Amino acid sequence: MVPRKPKSPTASATRKRTAAPRVTPERPRKPSLPPVPGGLAVGIGHATVDMLCVAPRLGERVVDLSVFSMQGGGSMGNLVATTAALGGRARYFGRLSDDDFGRYIVAGLEEFSVDCKQVAIQPGMVSPVSIIQIDELSRRRKILSSRGSTAPLSPRDLPRDLLDGAQLLCIDGYLPAVQVAIAEKARERGIKVLLNASHLHSEMDELLRLSDYVIGSERFAADVAPSDKIERSLTQIARLGPSCVVITQGDAGAIGLEGDALIKKEAIDVFIADTTGAGDVFCGAFAYGLLQGWGISRNLPFANAAAGLCCRTVGARAGLPTMSEILEFL
Questions:
Q1: Which CATH number goes with the domain that contains 103?
Q2: What is the Cα–Cα distance from 258 to 242, expressed in whole angstroms?
Q3: pLDDT tens across the length of the chain (330 residues)
């Protein structure tokens, strides 16, 4: 994914190809499969509007963009959208406002049949938004992000029936006190917990203890379990609580440990237009596999392919692959 220097801390599962067709914007696609009966993934965390700007010379005072695209984004928004796009059942909870950004975020999730009925709306505020600058030549990114002006969620804001029917809870370290509270409730009810750990947040030790599955970037692994060998980092993170740990490695692919099973998969060979949200798409595809009862030997290659394929276009949401596209790479 993009040149190795600098590496994206959140991107996953692609290998750079030298040929570079011109990038054009693409609208998000609706899920190609009906929802899979049974398990439900509930996601609580960050959802935003992504404004993606591509230009050949971003350092100049006045820049003419070659591509502009506005899409739904955010670590949890992309995760649940991916799970639903592949045919899984997904529900999202967070706090937004009734502004244009908030309505856009909800509409973008509902386009993929994500259940947003319990989203908390605080009127008259500003919902989260990110401006993502992408250099057309190097594919390096700069992200300008605002969490908006809505009041942070607290544990008392959690709906009592948020986890009803859930097989899997997905969290991302955003507002950790709330996520610790909901993860504890999930564990009490026998619901598995997946942590999308792209960065090190406060109370991460507690979230790791409460999580069954942890998917992190190389940056996360270096912060939590620094080692010159990634296998050793996996083992050290697993000792903190999770039964399954996966580290995404950008253009080197992904590696994971579940019990005694160590699985490594190289990145797929696709043209890289943009790596925004690739790690979130990996997590969303992995969550879909968990709903199907897949183990790591099947799930890691599946998620690895999904994350790589999403990098073909500008923006994660526009690049979500179909099930048939993923299967072609397995």
A1: 3.40.1190.20
A2: 9
A3: 333 333 333 334 444 443 333 444 444 454 445 555 558 999 999 999 999 999 988 778 888 999 999 999 999 999 999 999 999 999 999 999 999 999 999 999 999 999 999 999 999 999 999 999 999 988 889 999 999 999 999 999 999 999 999 999 999 999 899 999 999 999 999 999 999 997 767 778 999 999 999 999 999 999 999 999 999 999 999 999 999 999 999 999 999 999 999 999 999 999 999 999 999 999 999 999 999 999 999 999 999 999 999 999 999 999 999 999 999 999
CA dihedral 242, 248, 254, 259 (to 10 degrees): -10
Find out whether 169 and 163 touch, Cβ atoms under 8 Å. Answer: yes
Helix (H) and strand (E) counts in the chain: 9, 16
Rounded CA separation 233/218 (Å)? 10
Token pair, residue 187, equals 């564990």
- Among residues 244, 250, 245, 243, the alpha carbon closest in space to that of 225 is found at 245
- The answer to whether the beta carbons of residues 284 and 305 sit under 8 Å apart is no
Name the token pair of 70.
């506005």
Cis peptide before 6 (omega within 30 of 0): yes
Cα dihedral 187, 192, 195, 201 in deg (nearest 10): 0
CB count, 10 Å around CB of 34? 8
Handedness of CA 301, 113, 311, 316 (dihedral sign): negative
The pair of three-digit structure tokens given for residue 124, joined into one six-digit string: 């008259």
Q: How many domains does the chain have?
A: 1
Q: Are 125 and 149 in contact (CB under 8 A)?
A: yes
Range of the domain at 169: 14-47+74-124+151-327
Helix (H, G, I), strand (E, B) or coil at 44: strand
Distances (CA, A) of 214 to 54, 226, 297: 32, 16, 15
7 part of a folded domain: no
Nearest Cα neighbor of 320 from 18, 71, 49 is: 71
C-alpha distances out from residue 140 to 47, 78, 232, Å: 22, 20, 30
